[in-house]
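Take a look at my tokenised protein here and describe the backbone shape.
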Amino acid sequence: MDSKLSGKELQEKLTHKWKNVWETLDNGEREKAFAINEEYKDFLDKGKTEREAAEQIIKVASENGYISIDEAIEKGIKPTTGMKIYANNKDKAVALFVIGEESLEKGMNIIGSHLDSPRIDLKQNPLYEDSDFALLKTHYYGGIKKYQWVTLPLALHGVAIKSNGEKVNIVIGEDENDPVFFITDLLPHLAKDQMEKKMGDGITGEGLNVLIGSIPYADSDLSERVKLNVLNILNEKYGITEEDFTSAEFEIVPAGKSRDVGIDRSMVGGYGQDDRVCAFTSFKAILDIEKPKKTAVALFVDKEEIGSVGNTSMESMFFENVVSELINLTEENYSELMVKRALANSCVLSADTLAGFDPNYPEVLDKKNSPFIGNGITLVKYTGVRGKGGSNDANSEYLGKIRKIFNDNNIVWQMGELGKVDQGGGGTIAYILAKYGMEVVDCGVPLLSVHAPYEIASKADVYMTYKGYNAFYEN
């Protein structure tokens, strides 16, 4: 140890303090950070469901030179360095590839996020009438606090497949001239029994019924006239009948646009930021990539919020199948072993959000190990519950590699974990990709009010995450 160093110099040399992103940005970068967040808010507002987000990604990717893998297969196009290819999985999941200089067999740099968010779905037989109201029965999707969804203006998004096979896209509640919907709650004067319940029991799952109408159809001889009037309006505008609900996917989400938060406009408040903040930043990052050394991949999947099950989730064979198709197009002598090597040699950032430190709830968060809003992109070595159950737990060597990439590229970053030990926990898609032998670490944006109808992100963290993902793709 250099004994000539002063105590202050020694402290600066040996100790570490996380940086605040805003303090590192000059005026030019601040302007860029604010501009990128305007794009981000637009992305949130146009993609409130996994279908809408996937459609938006494919549209913009196509405008930026990406071609469909189906087209490449049909025409026998051999992928070459810099070629941009997308794969669409049932309009709910997407994979983007920028072909690298090295063969796919040597691995890819992958950033994986999810497009689904906690919400309220309609049941397959949802519409009913009670006490001269028309209402919709629902089944919530993902981990929500049910009491947060009452007395909010809500919008309906989704698709209906009619009896003739025609698909109808429906969005009601987003245009300023649209009606909105509500789930009602008790007034405090009559809520004595409700208020004595635990918070989780105050509003029940079966009680999340959406108010949709109250005017009866003109013919007084009929029953359920309010329900009939609603059906008549829907039929006149969209051509659907009650039976069409059975083959529909309708989602109830908060109505309205995302907004700036704070007198300094330093934050974004909006629905679905878990995990579309990581989807947006990884999407924007890969759009900047032209001829990477390793093939760059942006992966956007569905159903993470319900355990990554189903044919549009990370657990499906979609990604592995697409990689197989690419290798088949690229190599003269395709083999399954090439696919296995391509996957095993890959490096991944599992791009997902986590809880930022909230001074209103310090009792559940470890202040020394929680990420702070405004302190940059966050690396999460492990998630899981209790004794790291269900966690990927990235190894030291890979963490060191990512840390070096960030430091070498002046990326403001921090470490984080999800709350105090034994307080709770959660998971991401990291473990699913890790099963192939890939190096994987969770890496994303800290939020406040995660899984609430409106979540809050720092514009500084959104900007730095975009920069961090870009640096990962380039290295």
User: Anything to note?
Assistant: The mean pLDDT is 96. Residues 27-46 form the longest helix (20 residues). The two ends are 34 Å apart (CA to CA).
